[in-house]
Write a structure and sequence with these properties.
Low-confidence stretches: 191-215
Strand order of the largest sheet: 2-1-7-8-9
Order of helices and strands: EHEEHEHHEHHEHEHHEHEH
Mean pLDDT: 86
Number of strands: 9
Shape: elongated
Helix content: 40-55%
Number of helices: 11
């Protein structure tokens, strides 16, 4: 069964995107299509703040892009040496919070110890830290539509047909891709099923999935914020990953694609 993930590919130490691997364990053929690009902002301001850990109680990295911004600051401003010599140790004496394991992995590569990655999403992490420190935010990147989004989606639908499920990884990814998906999916958009089905609907769902060309698409979200964005568009969410990890998403999609209440 084919599933579509609207994200860019990230190879792990095994040389494969972990989402493709985890979904493959359940017999699901996943394709990744990037829908977002990123522009870095305010790097000079961010670099200055990184140079003065004494002014802050800690760091919060909200995404892998935020870590990439930190790396750019160190490289472009010739601060790698001073980072290794003193700044890294000073920041490690404070709390360094991250949203998710992917971000934690990147932060560890610049030598910082992290906490909070097991919270699962930004809302739970905020609850975890909001009473501990006063916060100052720096916006270091903005999202824009990936230049190849329409062409890549057109190619996928023409070659693979309508996927059994589509996973969105951010509200902005939904914003930039939904119109194209609606145009390409045609009538199958009207057949979107929620997570529960009557026995009659289950039978219909099974019949639909035996023919990819008439398959009913289910929508999945990587977390609650993205799920709410889908709901705001009037689209039922069949699956929200319990945590933003390949394992949790694969488990959720597999469960959502199984007919409920059948037999």
């Amino acid at each position: 069964m084919k599933v579509l993930l609207l994200k860019d590919a990230k190879e792990d130490d095994c040389g494969q995107d972990p989402y493709i691997r985890e979904l493959g364990l359940y017999g699901l053929e996943a394709t990744l299509i990037p829908v977002l690009s990123f522009e870095f902002l305010s790097l000079s301001s961010f670099s200055e703040k990184l140079s003065h850990p004494e002014d802050y109680g800690g760091l919060i990295f909200t995404s892998p892009r935020a870590v990439e911004a930190a790396q750019l600051c160190l490289e472009k401003n010739n601060k790698t040496e001073v980072w290794e010599r003193s700044l890294k140790e000073k920041w490690n004496a404070k709390s360094v919070y991250v949203v998710g394991n992917a971000t934690a992995s990147l932060v560890s590569k610049i030598g910082l110890d992290t906490e909070g990655e097991t919270c699962g999403n930004a809302e739970k992490l905020a609850e975890y830290i909001c009473s501990r420190i006063a916060m100052e935010s720096v916006t270091v990147y903005q999202t824009i539509p990936h230049p190849g989004i329409q062409g890549n989606l057109n190619s996928y639908y023409s070659q693979q047909g309508v996927p059994a499920s589509i996973t969105f990884f951010s509200p902005s990814g939904l914003t930039y891709s939904l119109k194209h998906i609606q145009e390409l999916s045609g009538d199958s958009i009207d057949q979107i099923k929620g997570p529960r089905h009557s026995k009659q609907n289950c039978l219909q769902l099974e019949l639909l999935r035996k023919d990819c060309t008439d398959a009913a698409t289910m929508f999945a979200a990587i977390g609650p914020t993205t799920a709410r964005a889908l709901a705001a568009q009037g689209l039922p969410v069949s699956c929200t990953a319990e945590t933003p990890t390949p394992q949790a998403l694969a488990t959720g999609i597999r469960k959502a694609l199984q007919p409920h209440g059948c037999c």
